[in-house]
Amino acid sequence: MGKNTDVIGVILLLFLVSGVLGDKGRGSGRSLLGGLEPIGLVSDFHRMVGVMDKLDSMGQMVINPPKLPEPSQLINTNAIPNLDGIIEMMGPLLSNLNK
Question: CB count, 10 Å around CB of 52?
């Protein structure tokens, strides 16, 4: 299947061609465009393609979720101070306060 822009482009091209043929070739004077401006249609289709691309990328994220980093990669263990010495020093002091 083609990209969203390809599909919307083909639909837009069919609308424009049917509008030209509707005015000249059929003789009825009516077209599928029904008085809509082609420039307005192009911008509407462009916005629609953008929405479709966003929905497609969200669907791809649901199907293939990105891998989250390990917790050890998020926390710098070298920045955490060694608390063993502080606990050994504070232990006797705190026990003296309880007396």
Answer: 15
Count of positions (residues) in the chain: 99
**Which tokens hold the place of 50?**
């953008």
Give the position of tokens 């955490």.
80
Copy the structure tokens of residue 75: 């926390």
pLDDT by residue, tens only, the chain of 99 residues: 456 677 777 777 777 776 655 555 444 444 555 666 767 777 888 888 889 999 999 999 999 988 888 877 777 777 777 777 888 888 888 888 876
19 and 28 Cβ atoms separated by less than 8 Å? no
Q: How far apart are alpha carbons 41 and 55 in whole angstroms?
A: 21
Sign of dihedral through CA atoms 20, 21, 27, 33?
Answer: negative
pTM: 0.39
